[in-house]
């Protein structure tokens, strides 16, 4: 007589986890294990891992025709996450493990040949979905801490198949206790390390307060990279839902999430040889790219003109929308991409244009061709653009000069961001449509200044709106109810990339 066992699992699909029913059927016939339901290579190879694990743990592998169906059949299945569910299904169908022991439980885990349970990626999204469905989640012990980050999750950890089966004979395995979430600590480099660069520090503070994008232009050694790496340290702390999104992205894209990193804003700095797919995500099975890994954090692109122009152009949509949709012939996935772009570049091919040393020998045509590597539409989407001069010798050697720490600057940033959130519900950089008209309009003097800039063709419609957002952030930092002419004037100064840098 044929036997049938059914368990529940989850398949990874973008940043979500779709429910998969694992059905194991035993019937007379030529012995073998056949896995159906659109499995990819790693899933098809599960038959060898499962057979070895079952026999190594002292159980009998049925000498029958075994069919394992992963439903729904039209959903692609990938990875080794179904190993444990398939093995338990075989043991339940052959009556070696109680059939009802995992009622209301979803199962994830990879099996080694010895029966040890190995961690799998994407456990946190699966735990969130299982909790929403009111079910417990059985995972390898190495994944338990990550799964417990899901609020209200019931997590059943297991170390080996043998121990798990022994506990199933006695009832359902014991649930793990949810640990206290670690407090986010200051791990980013401190802003007090920066000497001089008062204007650049001011731009970083504005960017942090309003979630604005930044372009730093300066000679080699001016400190552009040093400044960029200190932006995460002055950003406001992550909210609980934001921290959960960051953890879910890391769980899928990086193979897992370490709970010790809870609450830290990501900082991603891909090399300039990165392709468009590496930046935005892709592949035959869509995977997150660097912009998604930088979600709620900072994406730093050093040597911006050295990136392939086509790779940079793919950033235009996510900079506006905060998400990216990756479409392939058979799959489509949407990934979040609410990141802050910080880019750095030299002012000319040799890097010394405008430097006090006077060593630049680039012709005007060479400078124009170099800057033309960055398209106008992309530059239009960068809120703050600043020339960063080299620090002079006096500033480099003045060790006794007091310098503000990241903690001090972050207090002002948090106060300004709080004003914006209470007023409009989003950071100033995300104001759009009617909200932009309602909350970011400056006073009469400020409007007159903007109209003059428009009349002189210094601004496009998009850069006009970005100046409004930056001016609103400057007003929040000053504690002003409305942006004035001084705020608009400062915002306009950060749109002057095309002017010659100071000599």
Description:
This protein is of the alpha/beta class. It has 2 domains: 3-170, 2-Layer Sandwich (Ribosomal Protein S5, domain 2); 191-493, P-loop containing nucleotide triphosphate hydrolases (Rossmann fold), CATH 3.40.50.300. The protein is built from 21 helices and 18 strands. It has helices at 41-44, 46-56, 83-93, 123-132, 141-147, 161-170, 198-210, 224-228, 240-253, 276-280, 290-293, 309-313, 316-321, 364-371, 376-380, 393-397, 406-424, 433-439, 444-455, 461-478, 485-493, and strands at 3-13, 16-27, 32-36, 65-71, 105-107, 110-111, 117-118, 136-140, 155-158, 214-218, 267-268, 281-282, 287-288, 298-301, 323-327, 332-336, 340-345, 384-388. A 5-stranded parallel sheet has the order 11-14-17-10-18. A 4-stranded mixed sheet has the order 1-2-4-3. Helix 7 (198-210) crosses helix 20 (461-478). The termini are far apart.
Helices and strands, with pairings:
Blueprint: E1 3-13, E2 16-27, E3 32-36, H1 41-44, H2 46-56, E4 65-71, H3 83-93, E5 105-107, E6 110-111, E7 117-118, H4 123-132, E8 136-140, H5 141-147, E9 155-158, H6 161-170, H7 198-210, E10 214-218, H8 224-228, H9 240-253, E11 267-268, H10 276-280, E12 281-282, E13 287-288, H11 290-293, E14 298-301, H12 309-313, H13 316-321, E15 323-327, E16 332-336, E17 340-345, H14 364-371, H15 376-380, E18 384-388, H16 393-397, H17 406-424, H18 433-439, H19 444-455, H20 461-478, H21 485-493
Parallel strand pairs: 3-4, 5-8, 8-9, 10-17, 10-18, 11-14, 14-17
Antiparallel strand pairs: 1-2, 2-4, 6-7, 12-13, 15-16
Helix pairs in contact: 2-3, 7-17, 7-20, 17-20, 19-21, 20-21
């Amino acid at each position: 007589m044929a036997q049938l066992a059914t368990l529940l699992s989850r398949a990874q699909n973008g940043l979500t986890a779709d429910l998969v029913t694992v059905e194991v059927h035993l019937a007379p016939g030529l012995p073998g294990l056949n896995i159906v339901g659109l499995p990819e290579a790693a899933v098809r190879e599960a038959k060898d891992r499962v057979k070895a694990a079952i026999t190594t743990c002292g159980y009998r592998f049925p000498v029958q025709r075994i069919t394992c169906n992963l439903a729904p059949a039209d959903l692609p299945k990938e990875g080794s996450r179904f190993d444990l569910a398939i093995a338990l299904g075989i043991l339940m169908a052959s009556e070696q493990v109680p059939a009802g022991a995992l009622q209301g439980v979803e199962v994830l885990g990879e099996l080694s040949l010895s029966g040890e349970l190995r961690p799998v990626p994407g456990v946190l999204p699966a735990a969130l979905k299982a909790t929403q469905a009111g079910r417990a989640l059985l995972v390898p012990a190495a994944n338990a801490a990550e799964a417990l980050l899901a609020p209200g999750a019931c997590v059943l950890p297991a170390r080996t198949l043998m121990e798990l089966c022994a506990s199933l004979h006695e009832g359902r395995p014991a649930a793990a206790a949810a640990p206290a979430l670690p407090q986010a600590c200051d791990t980013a480099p401190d802003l007090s390390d920066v000497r001089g660069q008062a204007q650049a520090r001011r731009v970083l503070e504005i960017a942090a307060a309003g979630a604005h994008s930044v372009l730093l232009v300066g000679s080699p050694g001016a400190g552009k990279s040093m400044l960029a790496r200190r932006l995460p340290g002055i950003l406001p702390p992550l909210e609980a839902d934001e921290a959960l999104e960051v953890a879910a992205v890391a769980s899928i894209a990086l193979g897992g999430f370490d709970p010790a990193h809870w609450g830290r804003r990501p900082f991603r700095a891909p090399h300039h040889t990165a392709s468009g797919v590496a930046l935005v995500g892709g592949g035959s099975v869509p995977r997150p790219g660097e912009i998604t890994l930088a979600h709620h954090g900072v994406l730093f692109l050093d040597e911006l003109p050295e990136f392939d122009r086509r790779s940079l152009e793919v950033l235009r949509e996510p900079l506006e929308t905060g998400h990216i949709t990756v479409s392939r012939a058979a799959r489509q996935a949407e990934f979040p991409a609410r990141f802050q772009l910080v880019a750095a570049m030299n002012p000319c091919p040799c890097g010394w244009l405008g430097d006090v040393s006077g060593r630049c020998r680039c012709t005007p045509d060479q400078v124009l061709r170099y800057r033309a590597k960055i398209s106008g539409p992309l530059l239009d989407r960068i809120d703050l653009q600043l020339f960063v001069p080299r620090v002079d010798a006096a500033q480099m050697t003045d060790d006794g000069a007091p310098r503000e720490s990241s903690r001090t600057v972050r207090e002002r940033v948090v106060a300004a961001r709080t004003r914006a959130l209470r007023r409009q519900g989003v950071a100033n950089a995300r104001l759009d449509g009617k909200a932009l008209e309602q909350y970011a309009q400056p006073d009469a003097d400020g409007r007159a200044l903007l109209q003059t800039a428009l009349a002189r063709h210094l601004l496009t419609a998009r850069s006009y709106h970005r100046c409004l957002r930056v001016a609103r952030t400057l007003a929040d930092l000053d504690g002003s109810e409305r942006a004035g002419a001084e705020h608009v004037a400062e915002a306009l100064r950060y749109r002057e990339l095309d002017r010659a840098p100071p000599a």
